[in-house]
């Protein structure tokens, strides 16, 4: 199963934009992420629609932040990307009449929900400027 790395990739981009004095083009960001500029534009469009980035037109144009990284949290960016599930595990419903499967699913779903609640709460506590602190 492929893991969703959009949040990590977008945080990487935002940190670079925060550290850059100039806007960065979709092509520059795509080279940095080893992807296609169309993918970058689509994803950055979600952040633009949510007010985190803007596009600057012209010869020296590109993507830039609309506010400092210290005014953005991991939770806000996660939500701007579509608030996808954080836990890659799921339950099965192949045996809908089996009380054991129902019991297992109830227990797992409870744990998954609790874990996701804790992760989202922690995301809300971390501002993006923390991403630029070296952790060598």
TrEMBL record:
Checking InterPro entries in the record gives: Tscrpt_reg_Rrf2 (IPR000944), WH-like_DNA-bd_sf (IPR036388), WH_DNA-bd_sf (IPR036390)
Entries under Gene3D superfamilies matching the protein: Winged helix-like DNA-binding domain superfamily/Winged helix DNA-binding domain
What GO molecular functions are on record for this protein? DNA-binding transcription factor activity
Task: Determine the domain of life of the protein's source.
Answer: Bacteria
GO cellular component terms, A-Z:
cytosol
PROSITE patterns given for it?
A: HTH_RRF2_2
Xref: Pfam families? Rrf2
Q: What is this protein called?
A: Rrf2 family transcriptional regulator
The organism is Bowmanella dokdonensis
